[in-house]
Specification:
This protein is mainly alpha-helical. The chain is 65% helix and 10% strand. Strand 2, helix 9 and strand 3 form a beta-alpha-beta unit.
C-alpha cells in the first residue's frame, strides 16, 4: 500500500483499539457495565476492521493477470466495504441489543472505578489514533473540507479510519455519560441508554461508509482537477488539436484508466499520428502519474457531429435501444 493509503494511521488505530478492547473487557468483568461490554466489542470490531484494511492493501499489490488484466487495485474498495458491514453488524447491532437488555433488566454498576478509569484511558488512546489519522489526511486533503475529503477520497483507508476514530471518541463520551448517570442516580437504565446511543452512532457511521465505498466499487471518474490536467496534456497544438470526448475510471486509488477520442489534423500521416499519440500518452502520465492505462483514439474533428453531443447509446450505462413494434 502506498503512503497515501494511510498505513501509518491504520497501524496506529489497530494498536490503540487492541489495547482499549482488552481494558474494556477487564472493566466489564469487574463492573458488569453493559456500556463497557458494548464498547469492548466495538473496539474489537474496529481492530478487525483495521486488519481487513491492511489485508486489502496487501492484496491490491498483486500483479495483473490474463484473467484480471487491470490488476487488483479495487481489492482495497472491497475490503473497505466489508469494514462498513462489520461495523454495522458486529458493532452497531450488538450495542443496540446490549442496550435493550440493560434497559429491560437494569442492575447497579459495581466497582465504578474500573469503567471510569478504562474510559479515561480509552479516550486518551483514541485521541492519539485520531490525531494520527488527521495528520495523515491533511497531507492529502489540501483545501477540501472534511466532508468533501470523505466523499471524494479515492483511497478508502483514511476516511474509514477517520470516521471509526471519530465514532469511537463520541462513543466513549456517550459511555462515560451513561456510566456517570447510572452511578449518580443509582439507576442502571442510564447505562443501557448510553449503550443504545453508541449502537445508533455506529450504525450511522457504517451507513455513511457503505455509501461511499459502494460508489468507489461501482467506479468513479477522476477528480475535476485531474481531468483538466489530462485534457491540457493531450493537446499539443500541432498534430493533436483537441479532445472530442473522454472517459476516466479509477481502477484503484492510485491507478486511473483514461480513454479518449482525440482530434488530429486531417492531413497527418499515420506515422505522424502514431508519434503524436505516444507523445500525448507521455504528457498525460507526467501531468497525472496515476494515469496508468491510457487508450487514445484519433479522429477527424467535425463541428456538425460535435454539435450533436455525445451519443448516450455508445456510453456504458446509457439507455438501451428499444426495438420497434
Amino acid at each position: 500500500m502506498s503512503a497515501s493509503g494511510g498505513t501509518k494511521a491504520i497501524v496506529a488505530a489497530l494498536a490503540a483499539n487492541l489495547a482499549i478492547a482488552a481494558s474494556k473487557f477487564v472493566a466489564f468483568a469487574f463492573s458488569g457495565s453493559s456500556s463497557m461490554l458494548a464498547e469492548g466489542v466495538h473496539s474489537l470490531a474496529d481492530s478487525g476492521n483495521q486488519a481487513l484494511l491492511l489485508v486489502g492493501g496487501k492484496k491490491a499489490q498483486r500483479e495483473a493477470t490474463p484473467q484480471h488484466p487491470f490488476g487488483y487495485g479495487r481489492e482495497r474498495y472491497i475490503y473497505a466495504f466489508l469494514v462498513s458491514i462489520v461495523l454495522f453488524s458486529v458493532g452497531g447491532m450488538f450495542a443496540l441489543y446490549e442496550g435493550y437488555e440493560k434497559i429491560k433488566h437494569p442492575h447497579e454498576i459495581e466497582h465504578w472505578y474500573w469503567p471510569v478509569g478504562v474510559l479515561a484511558f480509552a479516550i486518551i488512546a483514541e485521541a492519539f489514533s485520531f490525531r494520527t489519522a488527521i495528520k495523515e489526511s491533511n497531507e492529502l486533503r489540501g483545501t477540501q473540507s472534511w466532508k468533501e475529503f470523505v466523499r471524494r477520497a479515492k483511497a478508502p483507508e483514511l476516511p474509514v479510519v477517520l470516521l471509526e476514530d471519530f465514532g469511537a471518541l463520541v462513543g466513549l463520551v456517550l459511555a462515560l455519560g451513561g456510566v456517570g448517570l447510572a452511578l449518580a442516580t443509582g439507576d442502571g437504565v442510564w447505562d443501557g441508554i448510553g449503550t443504545l446511543c453508541i449502537g445508533v452512532l455506529l450504525i450511522l457511521i457504517a451507513l455513511v461508509l457503505a455509501a461511499e465505498t459502494k460508489s468507489l466499487l461501482l467506479g468513479e471518474a477522476a477528480g475535476v482537477e485531474e481531468v483538466k490536467k489530462i485534457e491540457a496534456a493531450v493537446v499539443d497544438g500541432d498534430t493533436v488539436t483537441g479532445v472530442i470526448h473522454m472517459r476516466t475510471l479509477h481502477l484503484g486509488p492510485e491507478e486511473l484508466l483514461v480513454a479518449a477520442k482525440i482530434a488530429v489534423r486531417h492531413d497527418g500521416t499515420a506515422g505522424e499520428i502514431a508519434t503524436a499519440i505516444d507523445a500525448a500518452e507521455s504528457r498525460i502520465r507526467t501531468a497525472v502519474p496515476i494515469a496508468r492505462v491510457i487508450y487514445l483514439e484519433p479522429d477527424i474533428y467535425n463541428e456538425a457531429e460535435a454539435a450533436k453531443g455525445p451519443d448516450p447509446e455508445a456510453t456504458p450505462g446509457g439507455p438501451v435501444p428499444t426495438t420497434g413494434h
